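Below is a filled-in request sheet from our internal design queue. Each sheet records the structural input a requester submitted and the sequence that came back. We keep these sheets so that new team members can see what a complete request looks like end to end.

REQUESTER: design group, bay 2
PRIORITY: normal
MODE: inverse folding
CHAIN LENGTH: 128
BACKBONE (tokenized):
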């Protein structure tokens, strides 16, 4: 199993963000990435050091399909995107969590269940 650790002073809020805004599920070993194997976990640890949080973690996860639907749901949940891009190899989005940690969501597929999503209406969308 692979575990990615995130340290935060706001443990409950950050766990809530990953579960309720990004769609992660939880078990005894941590938070499970949406649409991925249960062999990869995210673990949020409480930081009492007083060190400013954020910008310390970078990770990426891949969606096999429905990238635009997933991003639309995240946007409806109030998730902050740095950029969402379409490129010849698929899609990539750069996302900030509540502590301003940056991570990417990738997809090699342009397949989506909802063909009515127009990402050009999103200000953070770019096509390369």
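RETURNED SEQUENCE:
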């Amino acid at each position: 199993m692979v575990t990615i650790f995130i340290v935060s002073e706001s443990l409950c809020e950050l766990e809530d963000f990953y579960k309720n805004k990004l769609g992660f599920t939880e078990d005894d070993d941590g938070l499970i990435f949406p649409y991925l194997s249960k062999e990869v976990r995210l673990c949020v640890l409480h930081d009492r050091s007083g060190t400013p949080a954020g910008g310390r973690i970078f990770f990426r996860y891949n969606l096999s399909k429905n990238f635009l639907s997933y991003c639309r749901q995240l946007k409806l949940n109030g998730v902050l995107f740095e950029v969402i891009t379409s490129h010849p190899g698929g899609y990539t989005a750069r996302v900030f969590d509540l502590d301003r940690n940056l991570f990417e969501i990738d997809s090699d597929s342009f397949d989506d269940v909802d063909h009515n999503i127009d990402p050009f209406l999103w200000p953070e969308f770019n096509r390369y």
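SHEET NOTES:
- The chain has two helices and nine strands.
- The chain has a mean pLDDT of 87.
FILED BY: M.R.
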